[in-house]
């Protein structure tokens, strides 16, 4: 179990430990039984962290952190893009539900990042989603750096989403500045199950 009033450090430790269990095949599947479902239907939710991640079916957020029902408040958008609506959901997690940590999580092999790194044009609907990732890809293309363009854009896109989140939600930005909220950028490796934590 976890303390609902845990510090950000404690919350991040739970996430790190859960991912270690997942990536080593030692999941405990906490809070996944029917008793938990029934209990939360009357007690209400008190998730201990919020996560914004990609919609990719290979990024099952609760499983990646070996957590269960009522543990994580999850927003998923292709390319983990953080527009106004996603930011509104995360603002709710912070200001109403009291989450003290938001993980902004990209992943390796992301189709949205690959599309944004390509010259091929998508539909107007998809281009609206890709717009911030295309901007990131343009600036990364001209920078020297380690790894492939796709790898660099994956990390840079996480940082861009974290920035977009604060820009779209002054309440989230205020909470982070006040020290009541930690925004933790991360990249999930599809091939190993490991979450790599980036420098914030
Ligand atoms: Zn993706």
Task: Label this structure with key terms.
8 helices, 200 residues, alpha/beta, 5 strands, Beta-carbonic Anhydrase, Chain A, binds zinc ion
Write a short abstract of this structure.
With 200 residues, the protein is an alpha/beta fold. The chain has helices spanning 8-23, 34-43, 61-64, 84-95, 111-117, 124-141, 149-168, 170-178, and strands at 49-53, 72-76, 101-107, 182-188, 195-197.
Write up this protein:
- The chain has a single domain, classed as Beta-carbonic Anhydrase, Chain A (3-Layer(aba) Sandwich).
- 48% of the residues lie in helices and 14% in strands.
- The protein contains eight helices and five strands.
- It is globular, with a radius of gyration of 17 Å.
- The structure holds zinc ion.
- Residues 54, 56, 79, 107, 110-112 line the site of zinc ion.
């Amino acid at each position: 179990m976890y303390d609902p009033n845990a510090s950000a450090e404690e919350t991040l430790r739970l996430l790190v430990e859960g991912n270690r269990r997942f990536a080593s095949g030692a999941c405990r599947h906490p809070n996944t039984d029917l008793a938990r479902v029934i209990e939360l239907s009357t007690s209400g939710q008190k998730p201990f962290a919020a996560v914004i991640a990609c919609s990719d079916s290979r990024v099952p957020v609760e499983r990646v952190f070996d957590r269960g029902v009522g543990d994580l408040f999850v927003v998923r958008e292709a390319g983990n893009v953080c527009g106004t609506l996603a930011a509104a959901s995360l603002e709710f997690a912070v200001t109403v539900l009291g989450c003290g940590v938001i993980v902004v999580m990209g992943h390796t092999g992301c189709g949205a990042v690959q599309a944004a790194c390509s010259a091929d044009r998508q539909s107007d609907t998809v281009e609206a989603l890709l717009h911030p990732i295309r901007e990131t890809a343009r600036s990364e293309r001209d920078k020297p750096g380690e790894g492939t363009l796709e790898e660099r854009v994956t990390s840079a896109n996480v940082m861009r989403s974290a920035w977009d989140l604060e820009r779209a939600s002054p309440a989230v930005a205020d909470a982070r500045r006040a020290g009541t909220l930690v925004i933790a950028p991360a990249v999930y490796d599809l091939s190993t199950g490991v979450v790599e934590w980036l420098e914030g």
